[in-house]
Specification:
Layout lengths: L8 H5 L4 H10 L2 H15 L6 E5 L10 E6 L2 E6 L5 E2 L2 E11 L2 E10 L13 H13 L6 E5 L7 E7 L2 E6 L5 H6 L1 E5 L9 E4 L19
Parallel strand pairs: 2-6, 8-11
Antiparallel strand pairs: 1-7, 1-10, 2-3, 3-9, 4-5, 5-6, 5-7, 8-9, 10-11
Helix pairs in contact: 3-4
The structure holds zinc ion.
Length: 219
Protein backbone atom coordinates (compact mmCIF):
# COMPACT_ATOMS: atom_id res chain seq x y z
CA UNK A 1 0.00 0.00 0.00
CA UNK A 2 1.28 3.43 -0.92
CA UNK A 3 1.19 5.71 2.13
CA UNK A 4 2.89 8.78 0.86
CA UNK A 5 1.12 10.10 -2.22
CA UNK A 6 0.87 13.88 -2.55
CA UNK A 7 -2.06 15.70 -0.97
CA UNK A 8 -4.88 15.85 -3.48
CA UNK A 9 -7.35 18.71 -2.95
CA UNK A 10 -9.84 17.14 -5.39
CA UNK A 11 -10.16 14.18 -3.02
CA UNK A 12 -11.81 16.46 -0.43
CA UNK A 13 -14.41 17.59 -2.94
CA UNK A 14 -15.32 13.98 -3.66
CA UNK A 15 -16.40 13.43 -0.04
CA UNK A 16 -20.13 13.01 0.55
CA UNK A 17 -22.41 15.23 2.55
CA UNK A 18 -23.35 13.92 5.98
CA UNK A 19 -26.80 13.02 4.70
CA UNK A 20 -25.48 10.81 1.87
CA UNK A 21 -22.75 9.31 4.03
CA UNK A 22 -25.26 8.33 6.73
CA UNK A 23 -27.64 6.81 4.19
CA UNK A 24 -24.93 4.63 2.68
CA UNK A 25 -23.53 3.75 6.11
CA UNK A 26 -26.94 2.62 7.35
CA UNK A 27 -27.68 0.62 4.21
CA UNK A 28 -24.49 -1.37 4.83
CA UNK A 29 -25.19 -1.91 8.53
CA UNK A 30 -22.25 0.34 9.32
CA UNK A 31 -22.83 0.59 13.05
CA UNK A 32 -22.47 -3.09 13.74
CA UNK A 33 -19.50 -3.30 11.35
CA UNK A 34 -17.69 -0.54 13.28
CA UNK A 35 -18.57 -1.94 16.68
CA UNK A 36 -17.55 -5.52 15.88
CA UNK A 37 -15.06 -5.92 13.03
CA UNK A 38 -13.28 -2.55 13.16
CA UNK A 39 -13.26 -2.40 16.94
CA UNK A 40 -11.65 -5.84 17.19
CA UNK A 41 -9.04 -4.91 14.54
CA UNK A 42 -8.13 -1.78 16.52
CA UNK A 43 -7.87 -3.73 19.79
CA UNK A 44 -5.97 -6.66 18.21
CA UNK A 45 -3.35 -4.32 16.75
CA UNK A 46 -3.00 -2.38 20.01
CA UNK A 47 -3.71 0.99 18.38
CA UNK A 48 -6.77 2.06 20.38
CA UNK A 49 -4.79 4.94 21.93
CA UNK A 50 -3.82 6.16 18.46
CA UNK A 51 -6.69 5.67 16.05
CA UNK A 52 -10.45 5.63 15.90
CA UNK A 53 -13.07 5.30 13.18
CA UNK A 54 -14.63 8.21 11.31
CA UNK A 55 -17.76 8.48 9.21
CA UNK A 56 -16.24 10.34 6.27
CA UNK A 57 -18.31 13.42 5.43
CA UNK A 58 -17.97 17.13 4.81
CA UNK A 59 -20.12 20.20 5.32
CA UNK A 60 -18.79 22.69 2.79
CA UNK A 61 -16.45 23.26 -0.13
CA UNK A 62 -12.92 24.51 0.36
CA UNK A 63 -11.29 27.33 -1.55
CA UNK A 64 -8.25 26.48 -3.60
CA UNK A 65 -5.06 26.42 -1.57
CA UNK A 66 -6.83 25.77 1.74
CA UNK A 67 -7.07 22.61 3.81
CA UNK A 68 -9.03 21.79 6.94
CA UNK A 69 -6.82 22.10 10.02
CA UNK A 70 -7.79 21.29 13.59
CA UNK A 71 -6.38 23.15 16.56
CA UNK A 72 -7.89 22.81 20.04
CA UNK A 73 -11.00 21.07 18.70
CA UNK A 74 -11.77 23.80 16.18
CA UNK A 75 -11.33 22.83 12.54
CA UNK A 76 -11.13 25.62 9.98
CA UNK A 77 -9.73 26.20 6.47
CA UNK A 78 -6.11 27.27 6.61
CA UNK A 79 -4.08 28.51 3.69
CA UNK A 80 -1.26 26.04 3.34
CA UNK A 81 1.49 25.41 0.80
CA UNK A 82 3.32 22.16 0.11
CA UNK A 83 5.65 22.65 3.06
CA UNK A 84 2.83 21.82 5.50
CA UNK A 85 4.57 24.09 7.99
CA UNK A 86 3.03 27.15 9.58
CA UNK A 87 3.24 29.32 12.71
CA UNK A 88 6.51 27.57 13.56
CA UNK A 89 4.82 24.17 13.72
CA UNK A 90 3.77 21.37 11.40
CA UNK A 91 0.50 20.44 9.78
CA UNK A 92 0.00 16.67 9.91
CA UNK A 93 -2.88 14.47 8.66
CA UNK A 94 -5.41 13.40 11.30
CA UNK A 95 -8.19 11.86 9.13
CA UNK A 96 -7.90 9.58 6.13
CA UNK A 97 -10.25 7.83 3.79
CA UNK A 98 -9.48 5.10 1.29
CA UNK A 99 -9.50 5.85 -2.40
CA UNK A 100 -7.84 4.19 -5.37
CA UNK A 101 -5.82 1.79 -3.27
CA UNK A 102 -4.36 4.19 -0.74
CA UNK A 103 -5.28 6.29 2.29
CA UNK A 104 -5.99 9.95 1.45
CA UNK A 105 -5.69 12.56 4.19
CA UNK A 106 -8.66 14.94 4.27
CA UNK A 107 -8.32 16.66 7.64
CA UNK A 108 -5.16 17.86 9.31
CA UNK A 109 -4.00 18.89 12.76
CA UNK A 110 -1.58 21.58 13.88
CA UNK A 111 1.40 20.38 15.89
CA UNK A 112 3.47 23.18 17.50
CA UNK A 113 7.26 22.97 17.41
CA UNK A 114 7.31 22.01 21.08
CA UNK A 115 5.22 18.89 20.52
CA UNK A 116 6.59 15.75 18.88
CA UNK A 117 4.94 14.64 15.67
CA UNK A 118 2.39 11.85 16.05
CA UNK A 119 3.39 8.44 14.62
CA UNK A 120 3.05 8.18 10.86
CA UNK A 121 0.47 5.91 9.25
CA UNK A 122 3.24 3.79 7.66
CA UNK A 123 4.53 2.94 11.14
CA UNK A 124 1.29 1.00 11.57
CA UNK A 125 1.18 -0.44 8.08
CA UNK A 126 -0.21 -3.87 8.95
CA UNK A 127 -3.07 -2.34 10.94
CA UNK A 128 -3.86 0.27 8.30
CA UNK A 129 -3.91 -2.34 5.54
CA UNK A 130 -6.13 -4.68 7.55
CA UNK A 131 -8.45 -1.77 8.43
CA UNK A 132 -8.94 -0.54 4.88
CA UNK A 133 -9.16 -4.10 3.50
CA UNK A 134 -12.07 -4.73 5.85
CA UNK A 135 -13.71 -1.39 4.98
CA UNK A 136 -13.31 -2.08 1.27
CA UNK A 137 -14.70 -5.60 1.57
CA UNK A 138 -17.74 -4.24 3.40
CA UNK A 139 -18.39 -1.72 0.61
CA UNK A 140 -17.73 1.28 2.84
CA UNK A 141 -14.61 2.79 1.29
CA UNK A 142 -15.22 6.51 0.76
CA UNK A 143 -17.52 6.43 3.81
CA UNK A 144 -15.52 4.94 6.68
CA UNK A 145 -12.09 6.33 7.46
CA UNK A 146 -9.40 6.45 10.08
CA UNK A 147 -9.13 9.23 12.64
CA UNK A 148 -6.18 9.99 14.83
CA UNK A 149 -6.94 10.28 18.53
CA UNK A 150 -5.43 13.55 19.67
CA UNK A 151 -5.62 12.82 23.36
CA UNK A 152 -7.54 15.79 24.72
CA UNK A 153 -11.00 14.64 23.82
CA UNK A 154 -13.69 14.03 26.41
CA UNK A 155 -15.88 10.94 26.19
CA UNK A 156 -18.60 12.67 24.23
CA UNK A 157 -18.33 15.50 21.73
CA UNK A 158 -20.74 17.27 19.46
CA UNK A 159 -19.50 18.80 16.24
CA UNK A 160 -21.30 21.95 15.20
CA UNK A 161 -20.60 23.90 12.05
CA UNK A 162 -20.50 27.70 11.85
CA UNK A 163 -19.83 28.85 8.32
CA UNK A 164 -16.77 26.89 7.28
CA UNK A 165 -15.64 26.15 10.81
CA UNK A 166 -16.33 22.88 12.66
CA UNK A 167 -16.33 23.22 16.44
CA UNK A 168 -16.24 20.26 18.82
CA UNK A 169 -18.20 20.89 22.02
CA UNK A 170 -17.45 18.57 24.95
CA UNK A 171 -20.51 16.78 26.30
CA UNK A 172 -20.40 18.65 29.63
CA UNK A 173 -20.93 21.97 27.81
CA UNK A 174 -24.11 20.97 25.98
CA UNK A 175 -27.49 19.61 27.05
CA UNK A 176 -27.72 15.81 26.80
CA UNK A 177 -30.69 15.93 24.41
CA UNK A 178 -28.70 18.01 21.94
CA UNK A 179 -25.90 15.44 21.97
CA UNK A 180 -28.38 12.58 21.55
CA UNK A 181 -29.95 14.22 18.51
CA UNK A 182 -26.62 14.28 16.71
CA UNK A 183 -25.46 11.72 14.19
CA UNK A 184 -22.71 9.30 15.22
CA UNK A 185 -19.60 10.22 13.27
CA UNK A 186 -16.57 9.04 15.30
CA UNK A 187 -15.82 6.05 17.43
CA UNK A 188 -12.81 5.48 19.70
CA UNK A 189 -12.10 2.29 21.61
CA UNK A 190 -9.42 3.38 24.05
CA UNK A 191 -9.97 2.84 27.77
CA UNK A 192 -12.95 0.95 29.07
CA UNK A 193 -16.56 0.91 27.82
CA UNK A 194 -18.65 2.99 27.44
CA UNK A 195 -16.31 4.05 24.66
CA UNK A 196 -16.05 7.58 23.38
CA UNK A 197 -18.33 8.52 20.59
CA UNK A 198 -18.61 11.82 18.81
CA UNK A 199 -21.61 13.12 17.02
CA UNK A 200 -22.29 15.73 14.45
CA UNK A 201 -25.13 18.18 15.01
CA UNK A 202 -25.85 18.56 11.33
CA UNK A 203 -29.11 16.79 10.52
CA UNK A 204 -29.99 18.64 7.34
CA UNK A 205 -27.51 19.04 4.53
CA UNK A 206 -29.21 22.05 3.07
CA UNK A 207 -30.53 23.33 -0.19
CA UNK A 208 -29.82 21.98 -3.65
CA UNK A 209 -27.84 25.13 -4.48
CA UNK A 210 -25.51 24.47 -1.59
CA UNK A 211 -25.84 20.78 -0.79
CA UNK A 212 -23.02 20.66 1.70
CA UNK A 213 -24.00 23.69 3.70
CA UNK A 214 -24.79 22.90 7.27
CA UNK A 215 -28.07 24.09 8.74
CA UNK A 216 -27.70 23.61 12.42
CA UNK A 217 -30.71 25.90 13.02
CA UNK A 218 -32.95 23.21 11.56
CA UNK A 219 -31.58 20.48 13.82
ZN1 LIG B 1 -19.87 16.77 10.64
Amino acid sequence: MNFSGPYDPTAFHGISSLHDAVEHFRSKNGHSFVETKLKSLILQHGVSDLFGVALVHRHFDLEEGTILVEKDMVTAPWKCDNSFAKHGGRIVPISWFFKEGRPYPYEFGFFPYSKTDPPKLEQHASFVEAFFDAVNLHGLDNFVGLRRLSGHESTGMLECTEGRVNIMFPSNEIPAELLQNGTDTMWFFDGQPPYRMYRCACTNTGSSSNPNHNHIDQA
